[in-house]
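Sequence of Citrate lyase subunit beta/citryl-CoA lyase (Sphaerisporangium rubeum).
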Amino acid sequence: MRSRRSCLAVPGSNPRFLEKAQGLPADEVFLDLEDSVAPSAKEQARKNVVAALRDGHWTGRTRVVRVNDLSTAWTYRDVIEVVEGAGDRLDCLMLPKVEDARQVAWLDTLLTQIERANGLPVGRIGVEAQIESARGLVEVDAIAAASPRLETLVFGPADFMASINMKTLVVGRQPPGYTEGDAYHYVLMRILMAARAYGLQAIDGPYLQIRDLDGFTEVARRSAALGYDGKWVLHPSQIDAANDVYSPDQDDYDHAERVLAAYEQATTVDGRGAVMLGDEMIDEASRKMALVVAAKGRAAGL
Ligand code: GLV
Ligand code: MG
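Predicted 3D structure, token representation.
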């Protein structure tokens, strides 16, 4: 699985940002053709994005392009121009506002045709699906199962809050007046369950108050605690915070490696299924939990 602790949004209509993004330490960079690009700039943005993928230096980063959603007239040309122009430099396409598994199947089929026609390896380009409406959430299980190309489900809080008429204008923070708990808990969990049931990553969406790093970190910690793999970042200042929050801390990582070593010794050398590690009883289920933390820690270079 690719690392996606920080997924940097870069408007495809802004060549300066496309240049600058290449020097930033985000795990994933997604070049946007959708909501950060004005309708009048859509066609030029496609050209900018193809040029940035072809000529830019993106080594080590997951390279994604977000196309327009299927209720618009732009989607098919977005896919064709980007994949024909730079398909060999692209890891995934992101499809926004997914509401139906057939939309993902459509993208899968179109990608296969373009790959065949252009001599690209069939099936290499992955898909990220944004869940950002009530309808998308209700259909999320079928969407998660729609294509072997799917790598992630991505929560889109701004569009989602609009879709359910949530009474707030601040994306990511709790709606004013809601003091009983976490207004996003159900949605985050629902997406996470569908993602894990089908072996996908789960990515949290943007926090729009880019000067409020404490607020960003608080919101990120919440989805990281549930098991989310990463979060969108809209500004360079959010990247380090995301990389930090979605990596295990050093103590937890060290502990996970100790659990794995002790359990390995217990089962293979001592022939036992459960063993004490300090005051803690560990068994096969503890090994599975430790593997999750150890894998994330190793990926983060701890
Ligand atoms: C992202 O696309 C969002 O709507 O939050
Ligand atoms: Mg959106």
